[in-house]
């Protein structure tokens, strides 16, 4: 278990460092609309790390996915705790490196790439209520896309690379939406990663500590809501049908009038028997 926690720590450190530095680089690139570059570089940063880490630990690299997996019963409470501690330590290491290497003026300008809602105290940004709503809705959308396809059955059907690509694209999409929907320059976008937001606040302090609770409460509320929704979905019947098709791969079906299904496997057997 501790090896998995260490792996989560290292993977989270790499992810947080890559996301922080590349997103800041997008805004420093001088492009007319640098926000358009953000989802692209989120994909470039996240995809290879997911491919490398999913086979080892499940590729959580985020307390949100760990908490959702714990609610589902995919990981035990003890393993989830080890994962979250490792993720927080990894994020802390990443921001310590960012602070040690980043130009001071850039670090102050972007608040070290941390999670802020008020634009550094200059009166810009959004309120805590708006930030909470965005954290909840964006995290829920990410979970709705990521959790089903991360199941073992879906991974076998789609392949690891496809699954990781879909999750990375979804992550970039919700970040881009959160950065543009408010129209407020002082708001840096949804956090989606409580460990990243916490680590930045611990290293940079200042305005990052303001309303920091929204970056934990919003995502965890989304996890609970998604878990409740997943319990209401008619999954048993769907899984039963998929199991039947796996047991009988030669079963061919075609639809007649749009509503009736005709099984022709028995027809084939009878025809062969008559011969």
Automatic annotation (TrEMBL):
Record field: transmembrane: 36-59, 80-102, 122-146, 158-179, 213-233
Primary site of residence: membrane
Annotated membrane topology: Multi-pass membrane protein
Compartmental location: Membrane
CC terms in the record's Gene Ontology section: membrane
Region (Disordered): 239-261
InterPro entries in alphabetical order: Aquaporin-like, MIP
Keyword annotations from UniProtKB, A to Z: Membrane, Transmembrane, Transmembrane helix, Transport
GO molecular function: channel activity
Family: Belongs to the MIP/aquaporin (TC 1.A.8) family.
The protein's name in its UniProt record: Aquaporin
Protein source organism: Linum trigynum
Lineage summary: Eukaryota, Viridiplantae, Streptophyta, Embryophyta, Tracheophyta
């Amino acid at each position: 278990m501790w090896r998995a926690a260490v792996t989560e720590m290292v993977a989270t450190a790499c992810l947080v460092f890559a996301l922080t530095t590349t997103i800041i680089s997008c805004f420093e690139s001088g492009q007319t609309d640098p926000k358009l570059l953000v989802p692209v570089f989120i994909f470039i940063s996240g995809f290879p790390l997911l491919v490398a880490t999913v086979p080892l630990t499940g590729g959580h690299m985020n307390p949100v996915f760990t908490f959702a997996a714990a609610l589902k019963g995919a990981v035990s409470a003890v393993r989830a705790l080890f994962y979250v501690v490792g993720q927080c330590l990894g994020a802390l290491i990443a921001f310590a490196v960012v602070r040690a290497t980043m130009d001071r003026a850039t670090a102050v300008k972007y608040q070290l790439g941390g999670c802020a809602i008020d634009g550094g105290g200059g009166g810009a940004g959004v309120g805590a209520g708006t930030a909470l709503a965005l954290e909840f809705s964006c995290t829920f959308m990410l979970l709705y896309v990521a959790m089903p396809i991360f199941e073992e059955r879906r991974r076998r059907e789609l392949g690891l690379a496809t699954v990781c690509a879909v999750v990375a694209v979804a992550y970039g999409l919700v970040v881009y939406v959160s950065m543009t929907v408010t129209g407020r320059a002082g708001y840096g976008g949804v956090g989606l990663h409580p460990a990243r937001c916490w680590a930045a606040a611990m290293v940079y302090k200042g305005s990052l500590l303001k309303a920091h609770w929204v970056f934990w409460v919003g995502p965890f509320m989304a996890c609970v809501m998604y878990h409740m929704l997943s319990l209401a979905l008619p999954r048993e019947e769907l899984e039963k049908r998929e199991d039947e098709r796996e047991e009988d791969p030669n079963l061919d079906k075609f639809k007649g009038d749009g509503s009736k299904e005709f099984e022709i496997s028995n027809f084939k057997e009878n025809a062969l028997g008559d011969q």
